[in-house]
Design goal:
Number of strands: 11
Structural class: mainly beta
Number of helices: 1
Order of helices and strands: EEEHEEEEEEEE
Strand content: over 45%
Helix content: under 10%
Shape: globular
Distance between the termini: 37 Å
Radius of gyration: 13 Å
Length: about 120
């Protein structure tokens, strides 16, 4: 399984970005997919996940601002990020195949998101 995250960049507070995670064939349709992030000096934290069984789940700090979705035909998962805050600055990672709480089998490389105040 290969995952390729993209879409990061520099945006002002209050702005929006959409991250994409392109996966190898059938990955998105087969597995729970998730987004995590890691800010400098902090541990990696869960952001959002999308699952055929349990639907969409979000960390409390992004509820109402971020939306996770997927396109099975394109083997791609998206993270729409609105009302961005400086504290959302981090490297964002996509992951596939949930093994347990915050444990995933496959990880993509990160994409940097920087929110200026």
């Amino acid at each position: 399984v290969q995952l390729q995250a993209s879409g990061g960049g520099l945006v002002q507070a209050g702005g929006s970005l959409r991250l994409s995670c392109a996966a190898s064939a059938r990955t998105v349709a087969s597995y729970t997919m998730a987004w995590f992030r890691q800010a400098p000096g902090k541990e990696r934290e869960f952001v959002a996940a999308i699952s055929r069984i349990s639907g969409n789940t979000y960390a409390d700090f992004v509820k109402g601002r971020f939306t996770v979705s997927r396109d099975n035909a394109k083997n791609t998962v998206y993270l729409q990020m609105d009302s961005l805050k400086p504290e959302d600055t981090a490297v964002y990672y996509c992951a596939a195949q949930r093994l347990g709480p915050n444990q995933y089998n496959y990880w993509g490389q990160g994409t940097q998101v920087t929110v200026s105040s």
